[in-house]
Amino acid sequence: MTSLVGLAVALAIGAGAVITSRAHSINLVRADLTAVAGVMADRVGRGVEQRLREMTFLSELEPIRGNWERSPATIRRVLDLLQDGTHIYAWIGFADRSGKVLAATDAVLEGMPMRSTAWFERGLAGSYVGDVYEARSLVGNNQVAVPQVFDVAVPVLDAEGELLGVLGAQVNWSWFAGLRDAALATDLHASTSIYITRRDGTALLGALLDTQIISREAAEQAYSKGRGTTEEGDLLKAFSVMRGREGASLGWIIVTTQPRAIALAQVNQMTFVIVLIGCVMAIVALLAAGALANRLARPLRALTAEADRIGTDRGATLGLHKGSEEIARLSFALRALLARLGHEEKLRMETAEELNRTTTQFASQLRSLKDLADTDALTGLRNRRFFEEAAHYQKGAAILALDIDHFKSVNDRFGHLVGDEVLKQVAAIVALGTRATDLAARFGGEEFVVLLRGVGPQRARMLANRMRVDIERAVKLPDGRSVTVSLGVAAWQENEPLDIALGRADIELYRAKETGRNRVCVAGTERAA
To answer: Which has the closest alpha carbon to 166: 130, 137, 131, 134?
Structure first.
């Protein structure tokens, strides 16, 4: 009977452990899914904002400001360069105040009226981002796949601030598939899926377009809370609402899912092992109890009574029972075992607590030391050592070298505190002008370097010139003068050592300095921006 009770207690403890493990496993999966959804929401939001910034930058570009209505061919060439350089835009066009398209990529839709379209009407008033739809106007009656796009638009003003028209673009929605595939290529489980939905929970992508990914009730809950989890059917789901800025907040929801069965696979396996062990233990216990019952019943009851007293009375001890040789040896062994177990348990707990404290402190110190070693203390950008370790051979990348003009005179005239503030403001603008895939670092003194992944020389020139203009506008000295910078740009060829590409970028930086400063020079060109 005692054996059966002990077995029942062991099985109850095992069942409790299984239940606790199941709940813990589900909570861990929920946390991972929520974190992935949050990261994806941030990346999608920044991607939409980047498209708006690109359109705004193009609308304010000084070299073409006077050609919006006078030279559609010039505007078309610029739009074609932007489309070819990024492969993100399905179509870019400029419509005058009447809504007529004057210039567009590949001349598509030129001459067509756009007054009734949402992007034109909303773009007249300010920055606009539309929802996802199928751009049938781009393919006509051709038997090809219709691209899914969303609209971005900004007003175009002349030098006096008068409205000239609207610059609009249709962004290929397939760029989200690239973000999703990059996230799934990490250490996520193969069964994990990532979706983006409208505010009502319907999908915005591919073959699942308009499919209900999460229920309307869950979508409303997601929009009100910002992020969270839900369970629908056999799936664990987490969601995070994309919170954009500059007109980019559309209520899109990032949803990550994983089958409940996958989340509980290890716990189910552990349950099977516990049940199997319990069955084996039951058979062994019953056989042993039946064989030894007559011989050991009386002395074992005495040992059991003493053991019971030990459990309730700290002063009780286990005596030596002489009876049979087996009982005597058992009582002696139990006495020694109890003493040793008490000592070992105390030692184990003390050691485990100390090890846990030491491990936690060591891991925290390592993280802090690595972050300090990789970061420039003044500007918060990465330092040169981290840049050279993190960079590797690239295909289709560009190197941008930036140097503050006359920085020594700033320190000499206003002091190092003002100089440090200038460095921090310039670093902040450099960081703001880079994407998540880029890498910006302070190489020392007033020199900064940026690695632009997947960017060609023309696109790099545009980004560099935008940084130069932003710094000149935003960073001021105590006497009111603007701080300017010179930039050198060079392509980083495939399988080329980093120092070679850096050297070319430095040469272009020196060329920018020698030709007047406050300009951008690109390797392989004679013209500075």
So the answer is: 130
What would the mean pLDDT of 131-142 be, rounded to a whole number? 74
- Which stretch of 128-132, 191-195, 268-272 has the lowest confidence by average pLDDT? 268-272
State the pLDDT at residue 460: 95
Q: Which residues pair with 96 in a beta bridge?
A: 165
Count Cβ atoms below 10 Å from residue 510 Cβ, excluding itself: 14
304 pLDDT band, cuts 50/70/90, is confident
Q: What is the residue whose two structure tokens read 């040169």?
A: 384
- Strands, DSSP E only, in 29-174? 89-96, 101-104, 128-134, 148-157, 163-172
49, 54, 446, 508: which is the annotated catalytic residue? Answer: 446
Could you tell me if 228 and 239 are in contact, meaning their C-beta atoms sit under 8 angstroms apart? yes
Model pTM? 0.47
> Would residue 246 show up in a list of annotated catalytic residues for this protein?
no
Q: With CA atoms as reference, report the closest residue to 303 among 316, 315, 285, 290.
A: 316
Neighbours of 61 (CB within 10 A): 14
- DSSP result, 167-235: EEEEEETHHHHHHHHHHHTSSS-TT-EEEEE-TTSBB-SGGGTT-BSS-HHHHHHHHHHSEEEEEETTE
Question: Which residues, in sequence order, are bridge partners of residue 89?
Answer: 171
Phi, psi dihedral angles at 444 (to 5 degrees): 135, 150
**What does the DSSP 8-state code read for residue 518?**
S
Q: What residue has token string 């040992």?
A: 303
